[in-house]
Automatic annotation (TrEMBL):
Occurrences of domain FAR1 (ranges): 65-152
Pfam families the UniProt entry points to: FAR1
Protein name: FAR1 domain-containing protein
Top-rank taxon, per record: Eukaryota
Natural source organism: Buddleja alternifolia
Length: 181
């Protein structure tokens, strides 16, 4: 590389265009919270990608994948919260929720801890509950879209969230090749 090459010469030549406006999203977050932002993002995505009560899935993993894709578009991560099984071990129902759902339990060792971890849960209500009792398929029985107590992430940054971080098979093989050499 030449010594006189500046940083400006190394910037990408092409910019990607997205369907949302980050300044508008910041304004929505500042003026009315995430409810208006969720409604704005729901207007962008197609109706079949928004969870609805009564939707059916073949298995729990299909429901998780569907809700995770929805969460990626809206701008939050998800986690598997509660699970109930029958006597045979078959899943009766499952709740997928926002990672900010609930509150941390009181720890009996609090007085002995020098530096506490930051509080990450703040009572968010966003969740999707599936039930598979009646039929062999899992059905959405409740869905809450509203988030409270935390901000949503813009779609350009959702790949940093835990449930959306993934590595493709091609990148994994490339990493293995680099490790072996």
């Amino acid at each position: 590389m030449d010594k006189d090459t500046s940083i400006h010469d190394l910037t990408p030549r092409r910019k990607l265009a997205f369907e949302f406006d980050e300044e508008k999203e910041e304004e929505l977050l500042g003026n009315g919270g995430s409810e208006r932002l969720i409604n704005e993002r729901h207007s962008i995505i197609s109706e079949e990608k928004i969870p609805k009560i009564g939707m059916e899935f073949d298995d729990e993993e299909a429901a998780y994948t569907f809700y995770n894709e929805y969460a990626k578009v809206v701008g939050f991560s998800i986690r598997k919260h509660a699970l109930r099984r029958d006597n045979k071990g078959t899943i009766i129902d499952r709740i997928f929720c926002c990672p900010c759902q609930g509150h941390r339990q009181k720890d009996k060792r609090d007085v002995h801890v020098k530096s506490h971890r930051p509080e990450t849960r703040n009572g968010c209500l966003a969740m999707m509950r599936i039930d598979g009792r009646c039929t062999g398929k899992y059905k959405v029985v409740s869905f809450v879209a509203s988030h409270n107590g935390h901000d949503l992430v813009s779609p350009t940054k959702t790949h940093f969230l835990r449930s959306h971080r993934s590595i493709t098979a091609a990148l994994a093989s490339q990493a293995d090749d680099l490790d072996s050499s």
